[in-house]
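Contributing new records

If you add data, match the layout below exactly. Sequence lines come first and carry their own label; structure lines follow with theirs. Keep one chain per record. Anything else will be rejected by the validation script.
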Amino acid sequence: MSHRYLGVIVLLLGFALIPTVLHTYVGLSASDGKTSADVPARLSGLTWADTGRSRTWVHENLASDDFIERRVQDVTLFVGRSYDPKSLYHHPELGLAYGHAFEPMTLSTVPSAVGPVPLHVLLGERQLAVYALLYDHTFIANPVRFQLSQAFALLFAPRQQMTLFFAHGDPTPSPLDSLVARAVLSAAESFVRSREAAH
């Protein structure tokens, strides 16, 4: 290798090393001071009971140490946060609604008290699942596209947590009017409002 390229190679390697050091060794991240526990146990006029979901299971499967999972009637609500967004948005139903087969996901944006919320809807013969994704102050419709659009900035900026609001229960003729969908919206609204109250 010619020595005249050595300076350029060292510069490129140094540039690539910066995000590696920041995220792997320094663990650069930004906390918004919020937690999944900010979602109250009473939502949609109902009191939800903790399911006792294993912290180890959630950490291993969703890379989250900040979560709640509660149940009322036939509906289970999960809210989890992670600095690894893909662990939350990549088919969360495979773990949180394990054993149920779903048709391809559909996307419906619905109004809420905190603005439009894109709801990812999964319908199966024996189960309905609905979820929403929040990153910083933004609800995400297409998480892959969003992460790609942020890829360069995230090389050098502190990582922030993505929040997953996921509920599943018995299917209904009108999924968006179901308790499953209302639980997701109520949880998302209460979480965003608690963020606003803290700032």
